[in-house]
Amino acid sequence: MTQRNDPCWCGSSKKFKNCHWPEKPFDLLAYAKKHHILLKTPLQIEGIRKASKLAAFILDILCQEAKAGVTTDHLNSIAVRLHKEHGAIAAPLGYGEPPFPKSICTSINEVICHGIPGPRALQEGDIINIDVTSIVDGYYGDCSRMVMIGDVSEERRRVTEVSYECLMRSIAILKPGLPIKTIGDVISDYAESHNCSVVHQFIGHGVGVEFHEEPQIMHSRNKDKTLLLPGMTFTIEPMINAGKAEAIVDTSDSWTARTIDGLASAQWEHTILITESGHEILT
Ligand code: MF3
Ligand code: CO
Ligand code: CO
After folding, report:
1. What ligand 1 atom has the least distance to the C-alpha of 202?
2. Whether the CB of 269 sits within 6 Å of ligand 1
């Protein structure tokens, strides 16, 4: 329980009595429990940091390998080998219902997310999102990036760059005491002012002890007043469209999500830790 002379729980580095006093003493653990949020212990954070580092390392290699002529199946097989070499598990394989059939997601052009690697070779002008989630010693790290294959159209470049800015600008403001809804505000303000829309059917998520935990992190405008707390680990992964925001999931595989108008979509993702004074990007 925060006492009057303790540092304020909100991370302002002021004394509680000079900051959020006279609000009733803030019980961090009770608040987290009420919102089904797992606050991670230092030991768990070490595990999540290790898994996140590996996911980012594998993603780095996959992005270097993503070139014209390379199939997404080939990228998947590299991911399988790297996870094996590091004694890790790729979280997507077998996840969900129906079970996801591959070890990474590869989402090309108008595919918003959850694209399934296959025999399609990358072509000059494509944009691709590669999404890696690694399990190390039971802990999860989750991240994704875009690669532009050669020269790409203005529309594809725009969503690629805008989604990156949306991610990094929304991370920059993160600290204890911030309402989750602020993330959606920052992303929506930037995307809308750059002639793009924000996907609302897929969201960021708590991550670390499980693949998808509370809280949900909406990237579009929302009213979620839940506060960020030290010890939270979650993803931000804005999906930004050049045209309409709506997604349609392929009925033949129940995973591949595409834009309703066939225009381009892009996404970047990090796993983030909320610290006592701010945040740390783990991936
Ligand atoms: N990695 C994705 C995310 O960012 C989830 C993929 S689910 C899968 O949340 F089953 F397709 F792997
Ligand atoms: Co994620
Ligand atoms: Co991911």
Report:
1. 9
2. yes
Nearest to 144 by CA among 219, 209, 236: 236
- Name the residue of 102, 112, 114 to mutate for ligand 1: max ligand atoms within 8 A of Cβ: 114
pLDDT of residue 21: 72
pLDDT bin (cut points 50, 70, 90) of residue 282 is very high
From the CB of 92, is ligand 1 less than 6 Å away? yes
Name the closest-CA residue to atom 4, ligand 1.
142
Q: Which residue's CA is the closest to the ligand 1 atom numbered 2?
A: 131
Atom of ligand 1 nearest to the CA of 269: 4
The domains located in the chain, with CATH, are 1-34 (no CATH), 40-281 (3.90.230.10)
- Phi and psi at 250, nearest 5°, equal -60, 125
Q: Once rounded to an integer, what is the mean pLDDT over residues 52-69?
A: 99
Which structure tokens are listed for 40?
A: 């991670």
Identify the DSSP state of 207.
-
In percent, the amount of the chain with pLDDT more than 90 equals: 90
Instruction: Decide if pLDDT at 115 tops 70.
Output: yes
Model pTM? 0.93
76 lines ligand 1 (CB under 6 A): no
pLDDT confidence tier of residue 124, bands split at 50, 70 and 90: very high
In whole angstroms, give the CA distance from residue 184 to residue 170. 8
